[in-house]
Specification:
Elements: E1 2-6, H1 11-22, E2 26-34, H2 59-63, E3 67-71, H3 91-104, E4 110-112, H4 119-132, E5 135-137, H5 145-154, E6 158-164, H6 171-174, H7 179-193, E7 204-210, E8 217-230, E9 237-249, E10 270-272, E11 298-302, E12 307-315, H8 323-341, E13 349-356, H9 362-372, E14 384-389, E15 397-407, E16 413-415, E17 434-437, E18 440-443, E19 449-450, E20 455-456, H10 460-477, H11 483-486, E21 487-495, H12 500-520, E22 532-538, E23 547-554, H13 574-578, E24 590-595, E25 599-606, H14 608-614, H15 616-622, H16 634-654, E26 662-670, H17 677-695, E27 707-711, E28 713-715, E29 725-732
GO biological process, one term: protein histidyl modification to diphthamide
GO molecular function: diphthine-ammonia ligase activity
Protein name: Diphthine--ammonia ligase
């Protein structure tokens, strides 16, 4: 990509440019924000370093690139964590600056910044980039600061301190010194006082005088004055005010042939960007008129009252033949309406499963999606998301199917990094890496993407699995946890393009990577026992990936977990309802992850062998029926459905939970079962109604509490994703 680099003069923004070049991007312009008054060295800014701004003009000639500069007119008016367009805020100056760069150089598609640890700054750069249709590149984000400082020095960053403001840094001793000279002292201060060795806590600021990207000249600071801002005896604050400098030409430098490039006319030029900041910003979304849609073609499923799921898909697709556009608009509009009916909106949504019938429509699906779910509608953070292709048309459904997880309050903590970095894959758009709510971390589906390049790693399905897990771990680390010790469940979507011979290798790789992570962190206790493993076979994944990993983690905060067993659990009534008796083999169908008094996760797998046992009398009589190998009779499916409810009811009641604690109940329906989503949904609805009549622990009504998801296959093992029925349940107190 062609990149405009935000430069403050500091080491971080310069090294970020070097990283961009290393990953194949081209720096084509520089952008800088400076004080309105040339005599002012430092502003009270939350966003911009301005000490040493008098020198930045020389960067244009040093690099042979155009430099766009703007005088800061705004101030930090919007100081909340996430930024919203605010008249008079200093962020709007960046918007005007980058707008002008884009106007003069329309081929610019990305912005580089030197953010390392500041969410405040990163989120504001991302906000501006989102408004301008630019990609944020932040290759220093979340990198280890000690290693990063050494990298900068090793790779030729020559930078001096121009501000010090920390215990152990003396303006008289440490201003004007090169970072290579101060490195050992900074590490000593880190050990003594916990300072950030790269200065991310404001301990010091730097000015880069030379680096490998300064191909034409280096900067020589001839004269400067030390200005004390505070003479505090513990942590005095001082800055350097440059008085005079010159450029020292380099004897040998690289020249790029720009004779046929219009940019050649402005190479090395400096432009001051004028203009007023925008006064307001409005956006409109073109929403399909749904008044003519037949209501009986829309199916809604909803679970219970606190944290719950809403699911919407289309039935009778011949009545909605408008393709993905119409189907997805209908589904999202219906979910929006359902939310409004409960006095909620998109800001209450924690997680979204976006299922589409054709992954070739992925780009178009995103374009429609962003008309409904936006940063403005979700000020506390946009939902996390997983997107996969499902055999929707084969199951007799429309081209879009959406499931949302909703909380009736807004205590969520959202991690949304849109910048491309070396940390983990970016989420460019209104979907986040992870959402933490009531101790459960709902993580977006992770592909085996190499974070800095955002391309699938090479090496096939096992390599993608390892990289996807590494990406999951990077996200988990931001919440002070690990997928190796906090995982409740791993849902792994496997593309049907994976050869059968490789499927077991995927599971082996999954186990080995998680075990390795656990050994590397012996100090982290296992918070919820062994995790549940679910493998789902789907037609395709984004970017033609082989695997997508979707972990669910338990991240308690200041909670003293209960130990031991539940006292006097309520007996299950499902057995008396349908005549099932507890058998020893039942436990072989189950994977459980239970945190007493907090959460209960269950995966129930019904194999062909289990089916034969459950329906032993009728199955044996039907084995000679023609076509038996390709389908299972409706009566058998109905009996299996009731058995699933019976066994799930037993597990949740034995562990002190009820159906009203259900967050979601997802039933994976393989296409090989030759049963429609509608038919299976009705079976579960009838089963729950019968259970309610007997036990009065399940509320009846027109809404289901089951999300039936059509798949090619599912199971607890990657090598055998051929369960007859797979149920995934999560209950939470």
């Amino acid at each position: 990509m062609k990149v405009v680099a935000l430069v403050s003069g500091g080491k971080d923004s310069c090294y970020a440019m070097m990283k961009c070049v290393r990953y194949g991007h081209e720096i084509v312009a520089l952008a800088n924000l400076m004080p309105a008054d040339d005599l002012v060295d430092e502003l009270d800014s939350y966003m911009y370093q301005t000490v040493g701004h008098q020198i930045i003009v020389g960067y244009a000639e040093c690099m042979g690139l155009p430099l766009f500069r703007r005088r800061i007119q705004g101030s930090a008016r919007h100081q909340n964590f996430s930024y919203r367009t605010t008249v008079g805020d200093e962020v709007e100056d960046m918007f005007v600056l980058l707008s002008e760069v884009k106007r003069q150089m329309p081929d610019v598609s990305a912005v580089s910044s030197g953010a390392i640890a500041s969410d405040y700054q990163r989120l504001r750069v991302e906000s501006v980039c989102s408004r301008l249709g630019l990609v944020s590149l932040a290759y220093l984000w979340k990198q280890d600061q000690s290693l990063l400082l050494q990298e900068m020095i090793t790779n030729g960053i020559v930078a001096i301190t121009v501000k010090v403001a920390a215990l152990g840094l003396d303006p008289a001793k440490h201003l004007g010194k090169e970072i290579a000279f101060l490195k050992s002292h900074l590490h000593k201060l880190k050990e003594l006082y916990g300072v950030n060795v790269c200065g991310e806590g404001g301990e010091y600021e730097t000015l880069t005088l030379d680096c490998p990207l300064f191909v034409n000249a280096r900067i020589v600071l001839d004269e400067f004055q030390i200005v004390l801002h505070s003479s505090n005896s513990i942590a005095p604050v001082g800055i350097i005010h440059p008085s005079a400098f010159h450029l020292e030409k380099k004897e040998e430098f690289i020249t790029n042939d720009k004779s046929n490039d219009v940019r050649g006319e402005i190479m090395g030029s400096v432009f001051e960007v004028q203009g007023e900041c925008p006064q307001s910003e409005t956006s409109t979304a073109e929403i399909t008129d749904l008044d003519g849609v037949m209501q009986n073609s829309i199916c809604i499923s909803k679970s219970y009252i606190n944290t719950f799921s809403i699911c919407c898909w289309l039935q009778n697709t011949c009545k909605t033949a408008g393709g993905l556009d119409e189907d997805l608009n209908i589904v999202l509009r219906q979910i929006e309406s359902q939310l409004a009916g409960y006095g909620l909106s998109w800001k209450h949504v924690l997680y979204i499963h976006l299922y589409i019938a054709d992954m070739n429509d992925f780009t178009r699906a995103n374009e429609i999606y962003v008309k409904y779910i936006t940063q403005e509608k979700c000020p506390s953070g946009v939902p996390s998301r997983s997107t996969v292709e499902l055999p929707l048309l084969q199951a007799g459904l429309g081209k879009a199917y959406v499931e949302v997880l909703v909380a009736n309050e807004q205590s969520k903590n959202v991690l949304h990094v849109q910048s491309i970095s070396s940390w983990a894959p970016s989420c460019i758009g209104p979907y986040s890496q992870a959402t933490l709510h009531k101790g459960i971390l709902h993580m977006a589906g992770q592909l085996g993407l190499d974070p800095p390049t955002m391309t699938l790693c090479k090496g096939g399905s096992t390599a993608e699995m390892e990289q996807a897990l590494e990406n999951c771990e990077a996200v988990a680390t931001c919440f002070d946890c690990s997928i190796s010790t906090s995982a409740i469940l791993f849902a792994v979507y496997c593309s049907s393009s994976i050869p059968l011979s490789e499927r077991q290798e995927i599971q082996d790789k999954h186990n080995s990577v998680v075990n390795r992570m656990r050994l590397l962190q012996p100090e982290k206790p296992n918070k919820c026992g062994d995790p549940i493993f679910l493998y789902v076979l789907v037609p395709a994944l984004p970017k033609s990936a082989f695997v997508e990993v979707k972990p669910l983690l338990f991240v308690p905060k200041d909670v003293e977990l209960a130990n031991g067993t539940v006292q006097n659990p309520s007996p299950s009534v499902a057995a008396s309802c349908w005549g099932f008796q507890q058998e020893s083999w039942h436990d072989s169908c189950l994977q459980k992850c239970v945190v007493s008094g907090t959460l209960c996760a269950v995966l129930l797998s019904i194999t062909n062998e289990n089916l034969a046992t459950i329906c032993s009398e009728s199955v044996s009589a039907d084995k000679n029926d023609e076509g038996h190998q390709n389908s299972i009779q409706k009566g058998h499916v109905e009996k299996v459905s009731k058995f699933c409810i019976y066994l799930l009811d037993r597990v949740i009641t034995d562990n002190g939970f009820s159906w009203e604690d259900t967050v979601n109940l997802r039933v994976y329906l393989p296409t090989s079962l030759n049963t429609t989503v509608e038919t299976l949904s009705v079976m579960y609805k009838i089963a729950f109604n019968e259970l309610a009549e007997i036990g009065q622990r399940v509320r009846t009504g027109t809404e289901l509490i089951v999300n039936v998801v059509p798949v090619l296959g599912a199971g607890r093992a990657a090598a055998s994703m051929d369960d007859v029925i797979t149920c995934e349940l999560l209950a939470q107190k």
